Glycosyltransferase
Amino acid sequence: AASSTRTHIALVSVPAFSHQVSILEFAKRLLHLHNDDTFHVTCIIPTLSSLSTPSKPFFHTLPPNIHCIFLPSVHFDDLKSNGVSLEIQLQLSVSRAMPSVRDTLRSLLGSANVVALIADAMVPEALEFGKELNILSYIYFPCSTMLLSLCLHSPTLHEEVSCEYRDHPHLIQIPGCISIYGKDLPNSVQDRSSLDYKLFLKRCQRYRGVHDGILVNSFVEMEEEATKAITQNGISNGDDVGDAHSNYPPIFQIGPIIQTGPSDPKIGCECLLWLDKQPRNSVLYVSFGSGGTLSQEQINELALGLELSKHKFLWVNLRAPNDKASATYFVGDGLVDDPLSFLPLGFLERTKGQGLVISGWAPQVEVLGHESVGGFLTHCGWNSVLESVVHGVPMMAWPLFAEQRTNAALVTDGLKVAVRPKGDTSGKSVVVKEEVAELVKRLMEGLEGGEIRRRMKDLQKFAACAVMEDGSSTRTLSKLAQKWKSLGRFYQKNIEC
Ligand code: UDP
């Protein structure tokens, strides 16, 4: 079929690699369900700078019926130099790109059979264009159902709690979820007088108003109660269940969606070669995602703690120290210092047989799937969490910024598939080497480690079932696809008439 006659889905993403990967992997899954060439996807991507090296192979290997339009970069130097948070930088820079998103969508609609618009959770304002253009509009939520439950509940929470959440004398109740400390809520809500918080609340209000639904990168079996809590408040049920602002939008659990496809064989191949030589389940994989950084003191303590644990480790993406945990999130690979020079004196020589440290990008999904890997020290970015679940690898939660502490609470206290340091890991204090070593041992050996591993293996099975042909997430996505496909035919017929 010519591309103009296929059913077309428009996506709007944001300038953050992990968000782009997630929404585009969703697109790949949609196409895979219908390998009869039914769908064509166009992803509109606001940009801040040129593509980082690690992300290039991902974009270059997309299937032919996924097309990306990179918008000209918006200026955001004023935001960077004002020292505003990562979330504000991201939010305001994409807002600046909205006129160009609108123009691109309009011209796409002129030439293609577009039936639905799906915007990343950071750009719910893009859905205004869906309304304007009279097409179905959805949010793609690349985070946990727990976070979505918090977002939908937050206008109520805002009214109920008058102090800063971290000073609240009780645990914070999120519908359908474990109760958590206020300090484990996302960064955006930590200072209620900030612009960050204001923008967060605004986004949450917009989620409530989404008409056609929110697609969540999670699966019912992992977050059953949270899913129930949201759907019980949904439009279809009608009744008010405990929340003054009920009538939530429909949600569609379609995950776990993780990075697939061939990674560049040149990137991080030394990690895989090194893993090939290690015993089964023996290695702790250490990574802080696409941009997390540690302070100099924390790098020292982590390194010495790994050494002290005597367990094997593979530490990738080591970056030069920075006291701000998200300092390099938008910088990508443009760093000048040699990060290995910031490790403690003699560390690399002393740990030669025990560990491997690289400053570059690793093929994370392949690493987690390698049989030598027995644990993952992770910053708890949602993609990393799902990749760990899909491969059944128990975690040590080391959250740094954004909603990572909330994810850490979910995997540690909720799902019990992770251990976590007692104190703060996001840079306000330092986790000392003795605690690091003790946690590594708790995770990699002994009774507790065994229990965690068993629970993770169960979760892994549920994750695999959810995306099987008749799995919960596959059925949900198939129904959506069916709806979009029939609308596509309908529009096409009308054009032909
Ligand atoms: N990633 C990778 N190699 C690395 C570091 C990260 O492939 O060396 C990938 C990882 O597999 C995940 C994404 O980058 O898909 C990071 O996303 P996440 O949500 O975990 O964290 P963020 O980067 O948004 O902080």
Notes: The mean pLDDT is 90. DSSP finds 17 helices and 13 strands in the chain. The longest helix spans residues 86-111.
